[in-house]
Specification:
The complex is a heterodimer. Chain A is mainly alpha-helical. Chain A is 77% helix and 1% strand. Chain A has 14 helices and 2 strands. Chain A has a two-stranded antiparallel sheet with strand order 1-2. The mean pLDDT of chain A is 89. By secondary structure, chain B is mainly alpha-helical. Chain B has 12 helices and no strands. Chain B has helices at 4-46, 50-53, 66-98, 102-116, 119-134, 139-164, 167-175, 180-191, 193-208, 212-215, 235-243, 248-280. In chain B, helix 3 (66-98) packs parallel to helix 6 and helix 6 packs antiparallel against helix 9. Chain B is flat, with a radius of gyration of 24 Å. The chains are: A mainly alpha, B mainly alpha. The interface between A and B is large, with 90 and 94 residues.
């Protein structure tokens, strides 16, 4: 068969042609996939460029003072980002304080304590909940959680702490229901499934032999978790928490509903406040002047900068973990 | 000699730890059940056939969500049609061509940042490059802002799923003389089919509840409209505006919309999960 093909001139050129055509198609396909990968980079570059260009008027008008000024007055066209930045950081911080321990607790429960029969259903339920859109948490927070919180938590706490030096300031003011701490709690419920899902996956990378050896030495569950599993999976847990922090910082809808949109840094955690994303969501379509729009875009730039740093750290940590586990 | 005090201490510490982590689990699950519970009770009460046949009403009169549903579906379809090929190709590049090159590393890093970046910020980007030049809000801009969210999701799952395809399969096809692009299209893609579809479904689930970037790209529209050149209604934006309004009947529509969105997202995620399991086995 090969002999015939080799002696037949026309078949040879036909085959050469096919090979050439396939080669050209190959190159073209390679080029298109490369182009698509480039599009991803272009989107990223485009986001940064458009935010930087859009924020030039605001930074020209207010200089770096934009970041350190609290005043936000569309009527007088004076804008400062401090109240929004403060709100973004404090709500995320409080949310993390609640969600990280609880999330890790759920992950420990799922990997070590839960009866085998319940493990999969609860695990799946948590993963599904991680996908529920933030607007659902927002509407629930506004109509269900805030009124409940106002009546059953804020009122008693305000009464109980009135007059006590530090606590009285932190939990003072009127019980509006909505406010910084309400937003932080909704955020924590929202990132909770996320933290548990990531942490559980990280815990499952711990070699069973390691755990069995520790149990075999007579260690209690607590000692196995605290001295073996957690140290082994530290990077992953921190990386997962940072990923959740990135979400919390940029979260818009869950917060916008319940924070009250007040451009003020209040000493009380019960007082209404605002975050960068809530300010943009609430005011962007109402912004009439160029400087107003530009100030909002500058807020977006600041938010992108903060989340970029947090997410980049999370990436690097989780990558290192992946390499460690030999994937 | 047995140190009884030490034993007792360890036992107490362990019990305390177990109680704490079980209560953490209960605490978390109670909130999540609370949310789903009120969503069901409020949403089901507001469900009616007119939701799907009538447009969003002015305050005080009867209406539905038909225009918002139509707008959401239209923009999502366009976003997926545009975003899927780009995501599929880019994911293919990372898994098959780029691999460990510096360029692929950067793309992978940037893609994972975009995957979790605040959607409101990518919405601002679309506002600057589409809404400002066009001079008005439009369905095009809305779809574009959703496509920006679709792409990273599809890239990530496509790469992961292609990496699951055994090397021997590629080698066998190549040994038969098939060119690389042919091997990818007819063998690797085919083997990873279920996984790639998973990625697309996850992307659809992700954008069906996405609100923030639509606020200032597609805006909203009170009327039934499929004109991509003008403002377009969408379910999440209608939920946002109606929930924050002072009118009782608008609140009811917002709850109904929230239930529809959640049901859609959960259904899509469950199908995606089943497909993914199929791929991994």
């Amino acid at each position: 068969m090969a002999d015939i093909a080799l002696t037949d001139e026309t078949a040879l050129t036909a085959r050469a042609q096919t090979t050439r055509r396939a080669g050209a198609g190959d190159a073209r396909f390679h080029f298109f996939t490369w182009l698509a990968a480039l599009v991803v980079l272009l989107i990223f570059a485009g986001v940064i460029t458009s935010l930087v260009i859009g924020s030039v008027p605001a930074f020209k008008a207010f200089g770096l003072g934009f970041v350190t000024t609290e005043i936000w007055s569309p009527a007088r066209e004076r804008f400062g980002a401090l109240a929004s930045i403060y709100g973004t950081l404090i709500t995320s911080l409080l949310a993390m304080i609640v969600a990280v321990p609880v999330g890790i607790g759920i992950a420990i429960f799922l990997t070590e304590l839960c009866p085998r029969m319940l493990r999969r259903p609860i695990g799946i339920a948590i993963e599904l909940l991680a996908g529920i859109p933030s607007i659902i948490y927002g509407i629930w927070g506004l109509f269900v959680f805030a009124p409940w919180f106002q009546e059953h938590v804020q009122l008693p706490v305000i009464d109980a702490t009135a007059g006590i030096p530090v606590l009285g300031t932190l939990f003072g003011g009127s019980p509006y229901g909505i406010g910084v701490i309400t937003a932080a709690l909704i955020l924590s419920i929202m990132i909770l499934p996320f933290i548990s899902a990531v942490t559980r996956d990280v815990f499952e990378t711990v070699p069973t032999m390691l755990k069995e050896a520790t149990y075999g030495l007579g260690c209690t569950t607590w000692e196995v978790m605290w001295r073996v599993v957690l140290p082994f999976s530290r990077t992953g847990v921190v990386g997962g928490a940072m990923l959740a922090l990135g979400r919390a910082l940029g979260e818009t809808m869950a917060v916008t509903f319940v924070i009250g949109n007040a451009h003020k840094i209040d000493s009380s955690l019960f007082a209404p406040g605002t975050t960068i994303s809530a300010t943009i969501a609430n005011e962007f379509t109402e912004a009439t002047s160029e400087i107003y729009t530009s100030s909002l875009i500058s807020l977006g730039l600041i938010l992108f900068f903060i989340t970029f740093i947090v997410l980049a750290c999370a990436q690097l940590m989780l990558r290192r973990l992946e390499r460690q586990s030999g994937k | 000699m047995i140190n009884r005090a030490l034993y007792a201490r360890r036992r107490v510490a362990n019990s305390a730890f177990i109680v704490l982590s079980i209560s953490a689990a209960i605490f978390g699950l109670i909130w999540l059940a609370f949310i789903l519970g009120s969503l069901l009770s409020q949403g089901v009460a507001a469900l009616s056939p007119s939701l799907f046949t009538e447009s969003t009403p002015p305050p005080g009169s009867e209406g539905g969500l038909a225009n918002a549903i139509l707008g959401s579906v239209a923009m999502s379809v366009l976003a997926v049609v545009v975003g899927t090929p780009i995501g599929l190709f880019a994911g293919t590049y990372l898994a098959e061509y780029g691999k460990h090159t510096r360029f692929a590393f950067v793309v992978r890093f940037v893609n994972d940042i975009l995957l979790s970046a605040p959607s409101i910020v990518t919405g601002l980007f679309i506002y600057e490059i589409i809404v400002v030049p066009m001079g008005h809000f439009s369905g095009w801009a809305g779809a574009a802002s959703l496509a920006v969210i679709v792409i990273p999701v599809v890239v990530r799952t496509t790469e992961n799923m292609l990496l699951l395809v055994p090397h021997t399969l590629r080698e066998a096809a190549t040994a038969l003389g098939a060119p690389m692009s042919f091997v990818i299209r007819s063998v690797t893609w085919k083997a990873a089919q279920a996984g790639i579809v998973t990625g697309v479904l996850l992307a659809v689930a992700r954008i069906s509840g996405e609100t923030a970037p639509l606020l200032f790209t597609a805006l909203n529209n009170q009327f039934m409209s499929l004109k991509f050149n003008g403002p377009m209604a969408s379910l999440p934006v209608v939920i946002f505006q109606y929930a924050l309004s002072p009118y009782e009947d608008w609140h009811r529509l917002a709850w109904a919309g929230a239930l529809l969105v959640t049901a859609t997202v959960l259904t899509l995620s469950i199908i995606a999960r089943l497909l993914e399991n199929k791929q991994r086995n």
